[in-house]
Amino acid sequence: MKTSFYTSWGNRGAVPHFATIPANMTQAHVIFEYDSSIVYGQGRSYGDVCLNTNGGLIDSRYLDRLLEYHEGARLITCQSGVVLKNLITFLETKKMFIPVSPGTANVTVGGMVANDVHGKNHHRVGSFGNHIQSLTLLKGDGSIEECSENINNELFRATIGGLGLTGMILTVTLKLKSVENNCIAIKSFKTKNIEHILALFDETDDEYEYTVAWLDMYSSPQKGIFNCGNHANGDIDCAAPVKSKTVPVNAPNWLLNGVSSKLFNKLYYSKASLFEREVTSYQSFFYPLDGVEFWNRLYGRRGFYQYQFVVPYGSFLTVYMDILKFIKKFNQPSYLAVLKKFGDIKSIGMLSFPRAGYTLAMDFPDKGRATLKMFEAFDKLVMDAGGAVYPAKDARMNRNVFLQSFPAVTEFIKHKDERFCSDFWRRVNIDG
Ligand SMILES: Cc1cc2nc3c(=O)[nH]c(=O)nc-3n(C[C@H](O)[C@H](O)[C@H](O)COP(=O)(O)OP(=O)(O)OC[C@H]3O[C@@H](n4cnc5c(N)ncnc54)[C@H](O)[C@@H]3O)c2cc1C
Predict the structure, then answer these.
(1) Bond preceding residue 241 cis, omega within 30 of 0
(2) Which of 167, 275, 398, 403 is the most exposed place for a label (fewest CB within 10 A)?
């Protein structure tokens, strides 16, 4: 048992949490000494899906073993606490890669399943859950269930994207993709405005597996950088950047402010050349923010929020323009904004976030009530457009927004385990 300040990425939950760190997961009873528990992976969710203020946390750090690798079938089975960067390092030696990767490698495989994470290639391959062959789940009654498309199918679909609420994922068997090397061949464009970015998404869809755009929300119209890439061919090696830097403690609240983030956005844009082609490492392409470990501490003790939503393609531009109006009205520009295009491959999970449309993720410092008021205005726009807000990034959405974003929750609750609960689940109050 360990008492620690388990926090999420946005610096939520800075109260002591008692975490059980069981080395042997067959001792199921160890886990259930609280009325409710939730698994904590690497705490890279921004809000409170991985927190449980009034109950227990189960820290998955010792479930860190790779169990089986089948070259021919391109399958790997690992424990759920395996951290993505370690998995990638192993797969590199086999000329394999994971089918879907989020924007940081400091996440666990269990966390990737529970949020059914998406990458820059959703338009080609769907989300992480689309590539899971099977998983094993420890339930609150101590039983262990195997789940796959053919076995316990409903529990499988509830667990993928199920926010850790159906039980503790013990192992995951994942389908891999083979690659020739550890490099990505990228092409970058400096963009003039949002219309330019949307056109580039359409133009590059077929040719490129990975696409993503960064937006400078201080400029008007918003300039940006659009990156597209494919796995490179040939017998080449791209060394990862040398060791990342660390932000050791929370920075003073004044350090990262409107002026410094405006400057950062401006410099980032001006440093990029108008049109660039290069071959780069996985780390530089997929995980640029991992270069500074604990960069979230730059926001200081108050922390920050990320607001990530998805809306259908046809509604995006209108919603985006209205969001800009609210940002101006509330005078709270986003310090960092990233846009991706989701394709129409259906997610397996009942509560999976990805669905056809554009998804915009924006970081905002926590300025208290004013920030929350602005998000409520965003919610209305997103809900009116038939979109959804992403729980992995959320610390404040209300019950109605959750219900409208995830109508299949009525099916999901049949599979929720009564011994598992999180601050998020309590807040959206589906159980009443
Ligand atoms: C810089 C950065 C970039 C990101 N980019 C993306 C992105 O591009 N796409 C995207 O989709 N997400 C992205 N994320 C979010 C991140 O991928 C998810 O929040 C992910 O789930 C975090 O994994 P974790 O191991 O830290 O899990 P935690 O945050 O600790 O937990 C997340 C959820 O998973 C559950 N969970 C964890 N382990 C288990 C288990 N063994 N059994 C059952 N439930 C479990 C928890 O209970 C919780 O509900 C990003 C986050 C950061 C910080």
Answers:
(1) no
(2) 275
Q: pLDDT for 18-40, tens place per residue?
A: 666 665 554 444 456 678 899 99
Residue to mutate, 6, 21, 40, 45, ligand 1, most ligand atoms under 8 Å from C-beta: 45
Best CA proximity match to 299, nearest among 323, 245, 335, 353? 335
Contact 137, 122 (CB under 8 A): no
Token duo for residue 367: 């300025």
Query: What pTM does this model have?
Result: 0.95
Write down the residue that tokens 């920050």 correspond to.
304
Task: Map out the domains of the chain as residue ranges.
Answer: 66-179
What are 72's two structure tokens? Answer: 């021919």
Q: From the CB of 169, is ligand 1 less than 6 Å away?
A: yes
- Residue linked to tokens 């994942």: 174
Q: What is the spatial distance between Cα 430 and Cα 432, in angstroms, rounded to a whole number?
A: 5
On the CB side of 141, CA atoms within 13 Å amount to 4
Is the CB of 110 inside a 6 Å radius of any atom of ligand 1? yes
| Tokens coding 246 | 């660390």
Q: Find tokens 């530089």 and name the residue.
A: 284
pLDDT tens for 80-100 read 999 999 999 999 999 999 999
